[in-house]
Amino acid sequence: MSFTVFVIPAVICAILIFAYIKKVDILKEFTAGALDGLKTAKNLIPPLALMLTAIAMVRESGALSALVGLLSKPAEAVGIPSEVLPLMLMKTFSGSGSVALLEDVLANYGADSLAGRVASVVAGATETTFYTIAVYYGAVGVSKTRHTVPAALSADIAGFVLSAFFVRLFFYGL
User: Fold this and answer.
1) What does the pLDDT average to over 13-24?
2) What is residue 134's predicted lDDT score, i.e. its pLDDT?
3) How far apart are the C-alpha atoms of 166 and 171, rounded to whole Å?
4) Are the C-beta atoms of residues 145 and 47 closer than 8 Å to each other?
5) Cα Rg of the chain, angstroms
6) Which of 48, 50, 64, 49 is nearest to 132 (CA)?
7) End-to-end alpha-carbon separation of the chain, Å?
8) DSSP-derived secondary structure letter, 6
9) Does residue 64 surpass a pLDDT of 90?
């Protein structure tokens, strides 16, 4: 048996011993923490519900396909395979939706294809921007994102372009 099997039980025991020594009411503190967690969840549910509804509407309405059609030529001009565009667009909104699209790219084009490799790097190197903003800003009650959205979307675009660039560089020698 390895050492790592004992790490979590050891941490739990250390916390219990520390609480006993410091005479902390563990049940009271746990209950207070759980209550704070529920308050945070209450604040997060409305923005998340709105975002998930909007994602479903965009996907089901065909707007995603239309947007991919508009962006395919400019994307290919900077080296991004058009097969990866739906994943890139969905990645900024939904992690689970982007995983489904990643699986679709890998199933249709293969993991060793240009599209499969770029899709894999995009999936690992970019963030679910709007989901993250909804969760973190919703948790603290921030309603004006100011420069956050433009900065985060700029980082996403850089991640998309650089993913394609580095895949071409490392696997195909540009």
Assistant:
1) 92
2) 82
3) 8
4) no
5) 22
6) 48
7) 47
8) G
9) no
Q: Give the model's pLDDT for residue 150.
A: 92
Tokens of 157: 């675009």
Q: How far apart are CA 18 and CA 145, in angstroms?
A: 41
Instruction: Write down the residue that tokens 């909104």 correspond to.
Output: 93
The CA distances from residue 103 to 2, 107, 119, in Å, are 34, 6, 9
* pLDDT higher than threshold 80 for residue 116: yes
Calpha distance 137→24 (Å, rounded)? 32
Which pLDDT does position 117 carry in this prediction?
A: 96
The DSSP secondary-structure symbol of 113 reads: S
Q: Could you give the C-alpha distances from 102 to 45, 83, 94, 107, 127, in angstroms and in order?
A: 26, 10, 12, 9, 14
Each residue of 121-143: pLDDT tens digit? 999 999 889 888 888 887 788 87
State yes or no: pLDDT of 113 exceeds 90: yes
What whole-number distance in Å separates Cα of residue 64 and Cα of residue 78? 20
Alpha helix segments (H runs only) across the chain: 7-21, 26-61, 63-77, 85-91, 95-109, 114-125, 129-140, 148-172
